[in-house]
From TrEMBL:
Pathway(s) where this gene product acts: Carbohydrate biosynthesis; dTDP-L-rhamnose biosynthesis
InterPro entries: dTDP_dehydrorham_reduct (IPR005913), NAD(P)-bd_dom_sf (IPR036291), RmlD-like-bd (IPR029903)
Protein name, entry field: dTDP-4-dehydrorhamnose reductase
Family: Belongs to the dTDP-4-dehydrorhamnose reductase family.
């Protein structure tokens, strides 16, 4: 059963590469933006024909949250139209799609756990276009898993953990937002969960939430990165209003993972345990 990974050179794509090789999965192909441009349906169709995937994992996305506020059309093209192109080809070639979405589809104005039925009310262009991507898939395809995740980090590509390690090493002090709460997700854990879903062959299609366990603010997360990484830097907790950004982010986006755990028997590590693993992998 061939697996095709789109956006294969991004952060999650590389995490999938790591886990696939740990598990000796060889029937997996990682396509970059050139051979697997999700905006070009003809290029994509050639790839489907060549690879004959039973499963397609879409890791390709526009993920620059602040920049998206100024690049609405490009963000929409990649996050919505790209997802729709993939879904149409999955229908045509009878492949199952695993698509990744985000906690940023939620408004996050109430401090309660978010489950798969919680109403989605995005407050940023990135969140809105990711939600549009979800809808484009569910409108045309039945065989899909949409896995929403949050605060993804790893030893690969760019992410909050690596930014903190760089800033914490270069600077004497930092201010980090302490009134936005969520759950970090180690990309290697998420990659394992995606491959578990494929291996289960349960056909329990639908939307699922996956992050690590626990809840922290960005400030707590940064402090843990410095502590575990042995980096000495003064860290000041900030209110969101004290760190202005182009995009508005949810104040609370902790997700309920009950559905993915009970459906697939997936074990979800505690965020701090996974952070230790990620830092030692750097
Ligand atoms: N990062 C995070 O904190 C979170 C991410 N997610 C979701 O997880 C998924 C994976 O994210 P992550 O790996 O971190 O993101 P990355 O930005 O690291 O990777 C996205 C990849 O998509 C590629 N890409 C962009 N445009 C196209 C295109 N037209 N065709 C093919 N590939 C394209 C990018 O290539 P290039 O870099 O060359 O443009 C990049 O390699 C995304 O769906 C994201 O929305 C969800 C929650 C949190
Ligand atoms: C660099 C920095 C960031 N921050 C804040 C800004 C923001 O609220 C928070 C995280 O900043 P970042 O820009 O690194 O992360 P951001 O790009 O907002 O992360 C999001 O990415 C998208 C793709 C998702 O899907 C989300 O789940 C989430 O992971 O930390 C500080 O307070 N101080 C700092 O020095």
């Amino acid at each position: 059963m061939n697996i095709l990974v789109l956006g294969g050179t991004g952060q999650l794509g590389q995490c999938l590469g790591k886990v696939a090789s740990q598990r000796n999965i060889t029937s997996i192909t990682f396509a970059d933006e050139i051979v697997g441009n999700i905006l070009d349906i003809d290029v994509l169709e050639k790839l489907f024909i060549a690879e004959k995937p039973a499963f397609v994992i879409n890791c390709a996305a526009y993920t620059a949250v602040d920049k998206a506020e100024d690049e609405v059309e490009l963000s929409r093209k990649i996050n919505r139209d790209g997802a729709e192109n993939i879904a149409k080809l999955c229908v045509k070639y009878k492949a199952t799609l695993l698509h990744i979405s985000t906690d940023f589809i939620f408004e996050g104005n109430v401090p309660t756990l978010l489950n798969e039925e919680s109403p989605a009310e995005p407050i940023s262009v990135y969140g809105l276009t990711k939600l549009e991507g979800e809808k484009a898939i569910t409108d045309v395809l039945d065989q899909y898993y949409i896995v929403r995740t949050a605060w993804l980090y790893s030893e690969f590509a760019n992410n909050f953990m690596k930014t903190m390690i760089k800033l914490g090493t270069d600077r004497d002090s930092l201010g980090i937002i302490a009134d936005q709460v969520g759950t970090p997700t180690y990309g290697v854990d998420l990659a394992g969960a995606l491959l578990d879903i494929i291996a289960s062959d349960k056909k329990a299609y639908g939307i699922y939430h996956y992050s690590n366990e626990g809840a922290v603010s960005w400030y707590d997360f940064a402090k843990a990165i410095f502590e575990i990484g042995n980096i000495t830097v003064a860290v000041k907790p900030l209110k969101t209003s004290e760190y202005p950004t182009k995009a508005t982010r949810p104040a609370f986006s902790v997700m309920d993972k009950t559905k993915i755990k009970t459906t697939f028997g997936i074990d979800v590590p505690y965020w701090r345990d996974s952070l230790k693993v990620a830092i030692s992998a750097l």
